[in-house]
Every structure is written in structure tokens, then in C-alpha cells.
Amino acid sequence: MSRSRWKMLRERKLAEGFSEPADVADARREIRLSMALAQAVYERRTELGLTQTELAARSGLTQAKISRIEGSDTVPTLPLLARLVQALDATLNIALDDAKTEVSFVAHSTDAA
């Protein structure tokens, strides 16, 4: 079954009053957060023109760890996030609620006043 067909089936079931079990809804939220973080890391890294290997060197991590983060295979700990934020020269913003998840890196100002 294609993803779009599965999504339409899920939306139809939800419209008909079907509700997911709590554990499925929790897992969906965790996956959404992991994917949002992965996308934000990838976007900031490419914005800086860095390879995964270069970001790994800047953050003191391995290229494999960066790959797992960008592939949403793992959710980093807070200390690891702090290292990524420093290596990406940005501030990390995370907004969580039931309806949506937003993760973004905001570049530090480079203005020399």
C-alpha cells in the first residue's frame, strides 16, 4: 500500500470517528519529533555548506551518529543537542503541542558592530 493511499485510509477512519490507541498516538508523536529534528539538522548543515563528516568533526561526534540523527533513527540527548547547536552556530527552538511539532535552528547573528 502506498503512503498516500495509507494516509487517505487513516484520514477516512479518523473522520468516521475511529480513534487510535494511546500507545499508537504516543509513538506517532515521538516519530514526528524525531523527523522534525532530523530535518532541522539537515537544513542547517546544508545551509552552512557542511558535510556530515565536517559537522561530526565540529561537534565531536562521528559521521555515523550525524547520519543516524538526520535519518531520524535516534533522538539525541540534551548534552548532545548542546554540542550540535554549538557546531551549527545557532539557537535551537523546539515547540511541542498536541497538534504540531516545530524544530528549527536560528543562526547566530554575525554582524560586527
Notes on the protein architecture:
By secondary structure, this protein is α+β, with helices and mostly antiparallel strands. The chain has a single domain (about 25-105), classed as Orthogonal Bundle (434 Repressor (Amino-terminal Domain)), CATH 1.10.260. Helix content is about 60%, strand content about 10%. It contains five helices and two strands; from the N terminus they run αααααββ. A two-stranded antiparallel sheet has the order 1-2. β1 (about 90-95) and β2 form a beta hairpin. α3 packs across α4 (about 65-70). The longest helix is centred in the first third of the chain and has 26 residues, at about 20-45. It comes from Kribbella albertanoniae. Pfam families: HTH_3. Keywords: DNA-binding. InterPro entries: Cro/C1-type_HTH, Lambda_DNA-bd_dom_sf, TransReg_Diox_bact_type. This is Helix-turn-helix domain-containing protein.
Walk me through the topology.
Layout: H1 3-15, H2 22-47, H3 52-59, H4 63-70, H5 78-87, E1 90-96, E2 101-107
Antiparallel strand pairs: 1-2
- What strand order characterises the main sheet? 1-2
Regions with little confidence, pLDDT below 50 for 5+ residues: none
| Percent of residues in β-strands | 5-15%
- The tally of beta strands, per DSSP, is 2
CATH fold naming: 434 Repressor (Amino-terminal Domain)
Which structural class fits the helix and strand makeup?
alpha+beta
Mean pLDDT: 86
CATH homologous superfamily heading: lambda repressor-like DNA-binding domains
Please tell me the total number of domains. 1
Shape: elongated
- CATH top level is Mainly Alpha
| Main beta-sheet strand count, sense and barrel state | 2 strands, antiparallel
Distance between the termini: 57 Å
Give the second-level CATH assignment, the architecture.
Orthogonal Bundle
Helix content: 55-70%
- Count of helix runs: 5
Instruction: Using the CA coordinates, give the radius of gyration.
Output: 17 Å
Element order, helices and strands? HHHHHEE
Keywords: DNA-binding
GO cellular component, one term: cytosol
Organism: Kribbella albertanoniae
GO molecular function: DNA binding; DNA-binding transcription factor activity
